[in-house]
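Quick log. Single chain, no ligands specified.
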Amino acid sequence: MLSGQKAFVAVVALVVMLLVQGMTMALTAEEAVDLVAAHLDQSQIKEGTESGGWQPEVLFMGPITTGMVCAYEWTGDPAYRASAELAGDRILWLSVAQGNLLGDEAYAFVRLSEISDDPSHNVWQNALVDYYLSPRKGHAEGSTEAYLEAFAGVEPSTATFYLAHHLVASHYVQDEDADLYRRVLIRHLYQVDSDAKFPVMAMGVATWALALTDTPADVPIAAAGVLRNPYWNGVTVGDLPGLLVGHQVPEGEPFAGSFYWRFDHTDGGTGGVISGYTEDALFATLGLVAAAWKNGEDALEGIDQVIVAAREALLDGIDEDGQVYEHLTRQGAVYNAYAGEMLQVLWSIEEYLNTEVVVDPEPGIPNEQE
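-> predicted structure:
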């Protein structure tokens, strides 16, 4: 979500980065979580009027908070839980002051609720219930439909990103309009093509949300009778994992295991590289893991190998200080939000690969085989 025009890498720089990448010892997943979570904890503002935040990323606290929840679940370190809850308090204060909650902030509340002392009743869950109910109270536009109309003017892959998180969060609290969020998410995904800002990332995050909320595989992406975007013609929700795998960079190519950022696997005239961007790899992997949670190897033959290859590519993108960059060669912009997203995805991979998935009576929620 934070990536720009994806044109920062020149051809000469690409060759140098590939050489450096090949000489660097990759981290293990355990080493990565320690480095990244410690970096985020130490850089968080702990006191004062901006406590709980990370400067200058006030608008991107959702992914960082989620990442710290995942770090706590992985390591059991109470400092990471305290960091996540402090961040959650700040998001909650800002949401009340501004009357809004971004999709990734709403999902951070889901994760905070899940680790709370009483996951069935807590401040985070209550905040989500109130937020998704508020349009129907008449305090905002007057209906969920009117609220969602505001996304019509948002760039389609950006809208898809936030709507995907809203779908998961509204589903978590069983809001009566959760299915409306699903339909609007699919509508915006249908508008995503190679010329969108983040095509593959949008596909990945939509796959994640639709899988976790148990969306039927036969639901079409293209609305009946609508032919504006031929990429999606005949595509259903069940086809999304296979499409994502088709955008993974194969062995022998630069940045193998990562993902192309456009559907057509070109640079889109930007002059930049065509693959290896961190957020594309993160959310494409997250989508594949969610699909695997839901259906295991039935989601796609060889999906475990695909996920492992993606994890290895992601681990290459973390430096010795626990920082995560725009590109997996450790080049480009550095944001704490990237680090939070990295923790979330690495933890999702860790959970999946170390748990035998069985059919769950509650859709979208994995169980461990005893």
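The longest strand covers residues 331-334.
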